Amino acid sequence: MPEADATESKQFHADVPQASEHFFLKGSAAYDWGMQNRLARIFRPASGHTVMLAIDHGYFQGPTTGLERIDLNILPLVPYADALMLTRGALRSMVPPTIQQGFVVRASGGPSILKELSNEQLAMDVDDALRLGASAMAVQVYVGGEFETQTVHNMTMLVDEGYKRGMPVLGVTAVGKDLARDARYLGLATRICAELGAQIVKTYYCAEGFEKVTAGCPVPIVMAGGKKLPELEALEMAYNAIAEGAAGVDMGRNIFQSDAPIAMLRAVRAVVHDGFTAQQAFEVYEAVRRDSALVPAAV
Ligand code: R5P
User: Whose CA is nearest to atom 2 of ligand 1?
Assistant: First the structure.
């Protein structure tokens, strides 16, 4: 038992008000400590932005090109990402628990690419996400899709469970095969996700009016990458999305299907965190790619 502390010279600094910091993330000031802490493992407080690496494609389309061997192809990229987005199966089987990055676990699923994609249900519970130490859970929401209501309900059930445990929910606006990716549609879908409780919303970029999509969504939007583009075009898209109000990117194929994935990831970071233009970031891509070509392959 320690002795009573009777020191007379304690330093209370009574003239210095205790700091009460504003939480840096849009729309997130009223969340509980644990939820804010998890969000701060995805978004970097210094820039307010995130570079997420999406590798969850296998949950509905199997061994996607570039993801055939996550242990070989993806683990070397992880140090360059702020957070991963992946399934619990990939996490447990292939990602070492020493990982320092945040990670968002895919929590909806069901249909494969052979079936109606919007017919998803919840595919894991929040306790398992907690057990894994996840930073958030991701759920697909098909606004306008055949099973729209079911997928919205999937999200709201997760939000309810997430609030009980301080676990944020990332709502992914899924466009399916037939829906237009214009600002009107994306504005509708992202706003619905946020209004119904998602703490982060992931959506596609649109060339016209994306700033209205981000302004109309009261929580952070991260831009999905979409199909593989030439590197400069992908960097231009990321640059425009950030300039027009996105809080980050969650890119998959434009990273891991690149000829030089680490170079591409570093270039995307330069855009998202350091304010580089697309052209400046493309020069980063070219330089890192050139340098890594000089390094002999590991034996
Ligand atoms: C698709 O539904 C998955 O959730 C991916 O995370 C998402 O499509 C982002 O990956 P990509 O940048 O390859 O489109």
Answer: 57
Residue 65 neighbours by CB under 8 Å, 6+ apart: 253, 257
- Nearest CA among 6, 42, 51 for reference residue 24: 42
**Residue indicated by tokens 């010279």:** 9
CA–CA dist 207, 183 (Å, integer) = 8
What would the pLDDT profile of 26-80 be if each residue is shown by its tens digit? 999 999 999 999 999 999 999 999 999 999 999 999 999 999 999 999 999 999 9
CA distances from 104 to 84, 194, 210 (A): 6, 17, 24
DSSP 8-state assignment for residue 16: S
Over residues 217-273, the pLDDT tens digits come to: 999 999 999 999 999 999 999 999 999 999 999 999 999 999 999 999 999 999 999
The residue contributing the CA closest to ligand 1 atom 3 is: 57
Q: Comparing C-alpha atoms, which of 52, 48, 39, 103 is closest to residue 275?
A: 48
Nearest ligand 1 atom to alpha carbon 85: 6
Question: For residue 232, how far is its CA from the centre of ligand 1 (angstroms)?
Answer: 19
Contact 174, 150 (CB under 8 A): no
Residue among 10, 26, 177, 202 flagged as catalytic: 202
202 is catalytic: yes
The predicted model scores a pTM of 0.94
How much of the chain is helix, strand and coil, in % rounded to 5?
A: 40, 15, 45
Nearest to 169 by CA among 157, 182, 178: 157
- Could you tell me the two tokens for 60? 């509905």
Burial of 98 (0-12, 13-18, 19+ CB in 10 A): exposed
The answer to whether 268 touches 69, Cβ cutoff 8 Å, is no
Q: Annotate 142-176 with DSSP letters as a single string.
A: -TTSTTHHHHHHHHHHHHHHHHHHT--EEEEE--T
User: Would strands 121-122 and 108-109 be described as parallel, antiparallel, or unpaired?
Assistant: antiparallel
The alpha carbon of 259 is separated from its chain's Cα centroid by a whole number of angstroms, namely 23
